[in-house]
Design a protein that fits this description.
Blueprint lengths: L2 H12 L6 H18 L2
Helix pairs in contact: 1-2
C-alpha cells in the first residue's frame, strides 16, 4: 500500500471532516514518514 493510499484509508476510517482534510492529511503523512524512518 502506498503512503497516499494509507493516508486516504486512515482519514476515511477516522471520519475526517472535509474542512479538516488537509490538516489531517498532513499530520497522517508526518506520522507515516516518522514510522517508516523508525522501522528502518
Amino acid at each position: 500500500m502506498s503512503d497516499d493510499e494509507l493516508i486516504e484509508l486512515v482519514a476515511r476510517l477516522l471520519g475526517c471532516p472535509e474542512d479538516e482534510a488537509l490538516l489531517v492529511g498532513a499530520r497522517l503523512r508526518y506520522a507515516v514518514e516518522a514510522f517508516r524512518e523508525e522501522s528502518v
